[in-house]
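Researcher: I'm preparing a figure for a lab meeting and need a structural model of a single chain. I don't have an experimental structure, so a prediction will have to do for now. The sequence is pasted below. Please return the structure as tokens so I can convert it later.
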Amino acid sequence: MMAKGLFNFSKKILERFSNPENVGRIVKPDGIGYVSDPSHGIDLELYIKINNSIITEAKFKAFGCAATIATISMVSEMIEGKSIDQALAISEDEISAALNGLPPSKMHCARLGRELISSAIYDSKKRSNI
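Model: Understood. Here is the structure written out token by token.
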């Protein structure tokens, strides 16, 4: 049983933190995103595979709090099956809504999720010389 902390996390955040999806690395990824926020003790990596401008697979490695892990797990699922443009259009509010709401003090996790998507896609474009 998880104790209620200072933050009133949604059940979905707690579930995602306890059982995150898409954890790991992709062998020979098409793009790798890196984002760090030392002030919050967060380090993130996102690995993506792309086929015909569609993100076909996403995996992540993360160091951070429960909200961070839950958010990046959700982001990795949200971008799979999306075109590059659709993935880049995902908003912080959409990420938060997918988790049934992030506490205001944890919205930086959604911002980092968006930055991570952009970083991985930018890297994929550099690798393919697009």
